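P.,

For your records, the input lines for the assembly:
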Amino acid sequence: MSLRFAILGSLSSCPSSGYDLTRQFGLGLGWFWSASHSQIYPELKRLEDSKLIDGSFTTVGEKLEKRVYSITPAGVEALITWVTDHPQYRPNRDPERLQLIFSDLASVDDIRRHLEAHQRHYVDRRDLVRPIRDAIANGEHDRVQKRLNGKSPREQAMTLLLREFAYGGDIERAELEIAWAQRALRALDEYERRYAGND
Amino acid sequence: MSLRFAILGSLSSCPSSGYDLTRQFGLGLGWFWSASHSQIYPELKRLEDSKLIDGSFTTVGEKLEKRVYSITPAGVEALITWVTDHPQYRPNRDPERLQLIFSDLASVDDIRRHLEAHQRHYVDRRDLVRPIRDAIANGEHDRVQKRLNGKSPREQAMTLLLREFAYGGDIERAELEIAWAQRALRALDEYERRYAGND
DNA sequence: TTCTAACATGTTCATATCGACATGATGTTC
DNA sequence: GAACATCATGTCGATATGAACATGTTAGAA
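Structure tokens returned:
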């Protein structure tokens, strides 16, 4: 149910086409909600039917049609209602650690590979998010800059503060997972030393 | 797709009924994968059709039928294949921080409430997971004890080590989120001081 | 004996999600 | 002029998930 609000939120920065949004979901926004174009286009239709967004046609070159959507006042209202809502925490889904708790059926090497993959995953993630956070802080992020347009310095500071919290939290999470995996790997080493030769 | 393996994994500790599994998903296992009985019963049927588990009937009292499932050798094999697989990281879904980045449309008080709810959520979570982790470490967790049965001391140590990693990681994550929310709340205070009276 | 909590197992429907299928235009490079 | 990456918009079908609907038993307490 968050997809519609992810779209509304993105459109509250600036009007965009389905294609623009798809790319957004593949970049910055994607760290908090990801979606493919096959979800986005039908959702845009539904949002238009609900009068929360407004579509207009443009043409690129000779024939290529582009549909650019803008958020309506009703859309802004719906978005504000949603952000103001008590956050809904979804059911836990942690397939990696689920694998891990049943990995006593696998070999120590398999477990080691699992933890190394976990570490790599979060290193990659951290290294991809950091530049985005930095670009936002340095005023080099296009869509965030558009969001700042027309806002007072006070409001601009809040927009930037919230982004800093959100991306910062994501980076901290990645760093936690990296440190966790490293500690687990060291514990595995110790386990192997303790039981070396026995059994 | 992890549901079938969550069930297989749970059955690899000891045979259980759908009802037992439902409770398991509501307790320990639920921290890594949660599911309702309406997902579990049909999945058990599918697993039985695939010969990965074996169902037998028991009667409780006079009439009440109970279907107890055990994992088959083919099921153990399928489970091992899965735990040995490279972990699959799912698309990001972080509705809370998604709300947060668009909360520049809301009031500072709304943001404060959001962060306080976030903190409470993870305090509750931490306080619920810790006793489970401790019970496992102290040998007071029934299903984990059953899993240890018939294992060598070396194997038992690995089972317990993996649980410690998994639950420990979850607790650390909760503590990170609590600290993050507290820092964000302090940053909000500072924001309000800085802009007091202006605007 | 009656009531209640817990035991026990299902189905059904709406929605979410993802990968694959499907099509075509535009701009750049070789 | 051909090839290719990117722009651009859609649909379809399989599966996942969750809430609600549906039914009945058993054990213990009041």
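Two observations worth noting. The domain at 3-84 of chain B is CATH 1.10.10.10 (Arc Repressor Mutant, subunit A). Residues 1, 3, 35-36, 38-39, 60-65 of chain B lie near DNA strand D (CB under 10 Å from a C1').

Regards
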